[in-house]
């Protein structure tokens, strides 16, 4: 599929609207995420690798907040467990439409991939089936904080013994010096990937009211409150990390 470069914030906007996952974002999302999230390709591919340890026969694997289906595609490339399928869920019709197109392309290139069910739904209202793996890749940070514990509790209760939640998130830091340093380094990463100061500033204005990162300590505490017994950070690059939470 043809991918467009991210120029959504390249021109001055009289008023910067809140960030939404609409058709404009869906069209440029692969370029946007690659240039904005350090380590993103490594996270995606290794979620597929990690999933092979936890996927159990006859259970679905969830990709919650699937966007264009990058995690879903990684799961399909790596998991060969009998009777598994991927359930990819997103509340954006624009993102899910393109996700289905990417999955169709993947189907044309590979054989014997896991089947996929794509669902347009609010994950807060989703009825989770017993599952051995749930992946939430940069999704929880867009959920209102007051609903995060309930969502994680429902995921914990849906996980079968030996299953896992893989949670990737942008982090904030309690130490002000650490926060300032990693924030500046992230801005340097964006500049190195060709974003202008105008693009950086306008994107920040668009997203700051809709994306609310937590600290690693907050993630640990909330996951424990949701019933997870162990939280293992397996990846961090600057202020982005991914965790394995075990029931």
Automatic annotation (TrEMBL):
Signal peptide start and end residues: none
Keyword S-adenosyl-L-methionine appears in the UniProt entry: yes
SUPFAM superfamilies according to UniProt: S-adenosyl-L-methionine-dependent methyltransferases
Keyword entries, A-Z: S-adenosyl-L-methionine, Transferase
InterPro entries (UniProt xref): CmoA, Methyltransf_25, SAM-dependent_MTases_sf
Domain of life: Bacteria
Keyword Transferase annotated: yes
Family the UniProt entry places it in: Belongs to the class I-like SAM-binding methyltransferase superfamily. Cx-SAM synthase family.
Protein name: Carboxy-S-adenosyl-L-methionine synthase
Lineage, opening ranks: Bacteria, Pseudomonadati, Pseudomonadota, Gammaproteobacteria, Pseudomonadales
